[in-house]
Amino acid sequence: MNGSPLQVIGSLEEVPSAPDALTVFLAGGMRNCPDWRQSAIEALADQWRRVGTDRPVTVFSPSRVVSACAFSHELVRWEHDALRASDVVLFWFPQGNEKAPEQPIALYELGVAAATYKPIAVGTEPGYVRRDDVGAQLRLIRPDLSVRRDLSSTVADVVRALRHTEKSLVEAYSTAGSLQSV
Hints:
By secondary structure, the chain is of the alpha/beta class. It has one domain: Rossmann fold. Helix content is 47%, strand content 16%. Strand 5, helix 5 and strand 6 form a beta-alpha-beta unit.
C-alpha cells in the first residue's frame, strides 16, 4: 500500500472485496462546506499506524467532484454498496455555509446507519446548524454514542471501532480453525 496502511477508493471506483481488509466509509457534508475528507484520511492513516497493526484498511471516500457533476443512479448505487460493505461509517457534519448548511443526504444516511448494528462514529463542528438534532436523535437510538466536536476525536472513535472489529475477526478465525481441527 505504498507505505500507507490505507487504500482509498473514490466514487464510482470498484468496491473491492478484500476479506482481510477492514473498511471505513466517509459520510457527511459534500456541498456547501469545506472538503474535510482528506484531513480525515490523513488522521485515520496516522492514528491507525500508531496502533501498530498491519491489517489493511480500505476507505471509501465519495468525491465532491463526481457528486457535483450530476446526479446519477450509478453514484447512488456506489454509495449504497460502499456503505453496506463498510465495517465502520464515519459521519462528519461541518458547519457549512448559510446557503445550504443542513446536508440532508448525510442526515438521511446517518438515520439509516444508526438504526443498524453497524459501528458508526459521529462528529459535528460546533457551528453545524443541526448539531442539537443529531445529538438528540442519536441519544434515542444509540445512547452510548458520543457526538464529537472535532474530526480528530471522531477518527479516534473509528479507530477504536476498527480495533474491536479486528479483534472479533481474529476470534472468529481462531474459533473456526479450532472447529475444523475437531
